[in-house]
Amino acid sequence: MPPTNHPPVLCAATIVREEANTDAPFDIRAIALFTARRVGEDELQFELDHKAFGRGLPRKEILAGLARRIPAGATLIIRGAAPGPHDLREALTAGTDCEADVGFIARQTNRVAIQVIDCADEQIEDLANRLDLRLPRQGALLAERCRHAPAAAQSLWANFVCAFCEVDDARTFIAAFRAWHALEKARPLPF
């Protein structure tokens, strides 16, 4: 795909699931939705939505809630890859197939363009480090993966910006993100 400008509204979503070897295999336990809206030529406005869920909440209910948070006309990016031939039957029966999730979200949203991004872990980790975002460690427990879902969504957005936006635009957008992120980190925690 040739370099392009940042869409007017770009959302990056992360879905955290239970491990396969648990009592509730593949249940969705957290989602994070990071939204970047263009304001004028070179400004962005950011919003972060992060939700955690107990075991047993139906996948379709959670994904419908995610779909309601995506603005009409937005572009949604989600990280994933089509399953290999070995994984296809298990993924479809377990409801963990990225394509099935994306298809469900597409049916629930109004005029949303969805792109599944397949990128190397190292690429996302490098961007996260550069942007002072804490991703879950390799093999992290569920609580850590849920807690760091927003960083994963933000890193996915940064990956898109670096890969698909013009260099000058990417620098401007990443600088705007850094300023927003610094303000978010300085915000007092609610008790």
What's the short story on this structure?
The protein has seven helices and five strands; from the N terminus they run E-E-E-H-E-H-H-E-H-H-H-H. By secondary structure, it is α/β, with parallel strands linked by helices. The longest helix is centred in the last third of the chain and has 20 residues.
Question: Features of this protein?
Answer:
191 residues, 5-stranded mixed β-sheet, globular
Describe the model:
The protein contains 7 helices and 5 strands. Residues 82-95 have low confidence and may be disordered. Strands 3-2-1-4-5 form a 5-stranded mixed sheet, sandwiched between helices. The chain is of the alpha/beta class. It has helices at 59-69, 88-94, 98-108, 121-130, 142-147, 149-164, 167-186, and strands at residues 9-17, 28-39, 43-52, 75-79, 113-117. The radius of gyration is 16 Å and the shape is globular. 42% of the residues lie in helices and 21% in strands.
Furnish the topology, listing elements before pairings.
Elements: E1 9-17, E2 28-39, E3 43-52, H1 59-69, E4 75-79, H2 88-94, H3 98-108, E5 113-117, H4 121-130, H5 142-147, H6 149-164, H7 167-186
Parallel strand pairs: 1-4, 4-5
Antiparallel strand pairs: 1-2, 2-3
Helix pairs in contact: 1-3, 4-6, 6-7
Q: Distance N terminus to C terminus?
A: 45 Å
From the spread of the alpha carbons, the general shape counts as globular
Note the beta-strand portion: 15-25%
Q: How would you characterize the largest beta sheet?
A: 5 strands, mixed
* Rg calculated over all Cα atoms: 16 Å
Order of helices and strands: EEEHEHHEHHHH
Q: Give the uncertain stretches in residue-range form.
A: 82-95
How many separate helices?
A: 7
Mean pLDDT: 85
Structural class: alpha/beta
Q: How much helicity do the residues have?
A: 40-55%
Trace the largest sheet across and list its strands: 3-2-1-4-5
Number of strands: 5
